[in-house]
Design a protein that fits this description.
The protein is α+β, with helices and mostly antiparallel strands and 346 residues long. The protein folds into two domains: 4-84 and 112-160, HemS/ChuS/ChuX like domains (Heme iron utilization protein-like fold, 3-Layer(aba) Sandwich), CATH 3.40.1570.10; 183-343, Heme iron utilization protein-like fold (3-Layer(aba) Sandwich), CATH 3.40.1570. Helices cover 25% and strands 31% of the residues. It has ten helices and 18 strands. It has helices at 4-18, 24-30, 35-40, 54-59, 150-160, 188-196, 203-210, 215-220, 235-245, 336-343, and strands at residues 47-50, 67-72, 76-82, 87-88, 95-97, 103-106, 113-121, 124-132, 138-144, 228-231, 250-255, 259-265, 270-273, 276-280, 284-289, 295-303, 306-314, 320-326. The longest helix has 15 residues, at 4-18. The protein is globular. It starts with a helix and ends with a helix. This is Putative hemin transport protein. InterPro entries: Heme_Transport_Util_sf, HemS/ChuX_dom.
């Protein structure tokens, strides 16, 4: 029967034969499909569909021991190894893992499908749990590492295996609203006053929403250059190199609609390869596509603990790619060394 899934399956098999190392995300783009649709064509072989019981599945990931958490958007990949302890799904707005290694903010309203995957990568079988949004884009993936508990992984699959093991998959696109309000329609003075009176960095999102601004428009309309200043994208490399040199602990936030993943700590091994700038440490990797960066800003927000300084990176759609901060916690002022590094960026 020539269903879309069967045709996709054949097309992908052919593509894999001709390009053995091709990643599924790139194959999906080439075949004009979503990654989730391609993955589903392997159900019954290397893939098992799971029930979308996300809170319970995530609450049991700790049983796997040390794993690798992967969250990405189109421009940046964030990989962090650690243990999924302290799950908190008590808030209707966001689920949390708050740990020194696995640190995430989870927006479950965007999580739609779950799969367990066992794929051959050379001589190695890579095992993972993969979660997708309604558009078929990956929200979050959890990969087993050599120290992981494989028996617990098998038990999870058995427990949450869906009765529906069909290879058919449907997706629904997100509609992107790229319209910005005209500057003259905005009460700019009121917005700027609100920015200067912020008490917490998290309140900035509510302020931008209240004035119905896009994020990059908000930065453009900042009170002055102290609060938001555009800088070159190559400043990101300077920022990371100086942080590594000074062994300064930083925070790296990367996310998509359904998940934000955070690394806190020192970074050591930095490397540029073609258009990708990489952090390649034993427990933390970041891969940032420098060619897809449209805007980079220094952003300062007042809080009860003093000013918090971020370097924020955006794509051409005005969507946030990655944010960098100095290591900090509520109640503790940000590191002076971080401020010094950022103030010299151009």
């Amino acid at each position: 029967m020539n269903t879309r899934a069967n045709i996709l399956k054949e097309q992908w098999d052919t593509l894999k034969k001709n390009n053995p190392g091709m990643r599924i995300r790139n194959a999906a783009k080439e075949l004009n499909a979503s990654e989730m649709e391609l993955l589903a064509t392997q159900i019954g072989n290397s893939v098992t569909r799971l029930e979308p019981d996300f809170i319970n599945i995530l609450s049991e990931i700790e049983s796997l021991g040390k794993v690798m958490a992967l969250t990405r958007n189109d421009e940046c990949v964030h990989e962090r190894k650690g243990i999924y302890s302290n799950p908190d799904f008590s808030s209707p707005h966001a689920g949390l893992f708050v740990n020194p290694d696995i640190d995430m903010r989870i927006f479950l309203s965007h999580w739609k499908k779950a799969f367990a995957v066992k794929e051959q990568a050379g001589n190695i079988e890579r095992k993972s749990l993969q979660f997708f949004g309604k558009d078929g884009e990956a929200i979050h993936k959890i990969y087993l590492v050599p120290q992981s508990n494989e028996a617990a992984f098998e038990q999870l699959i058995e427990k949450y295996k869906s009765e529906n093991q069909s290879i058919e998959e449907t997706t629904e696109p997100y509609l992107r609203n790229m319209d910005e309000r005209l500057d003259q329609e905005i009460d700019i003075d009121e917005f700027r006053k609100g920015w200067k009176n912020l008490k917490d960095t998290h309140d900035f999102y509510a302020l931008v929403k209240k004035h119905n601004l896009s994020r990059t428009q908000a930065l453009r309309l900042a009170p002055d250059e102290y609060y938001a200043k555009p800088i070159s994208k190559d400043s990101i490399i300077t920022l990371l190199e100086k942080s590594a040199e000074q062994q300064l602990p930083i925070m790296v936030f990367v996310g998509n609609k359904g998940n934000i993943q955070i690394h806190t700590g020192e970074i050591k091994k930095l490397m540029r390869h073609q258009n990708w700038y990489n952090i390649l440490d034993p427990d933390f990797n970041m891969h940032l596509d420098m060619d897809k960066i449209a805007q980079t800003w220094i952003v300062r927000k007042p809080t009860e603990d003093g000013i918090v300084t971020a370097v924020e990176v955006y794509n051409e759609m005005g969507e946030i790619i990655v944010q960098f901060f100095g290591k900090r916690k509520p109640g503790i002022p940000e590191l002076e060394e971080w401020r010094e590094i950022v103030k010299d960026l151009k």
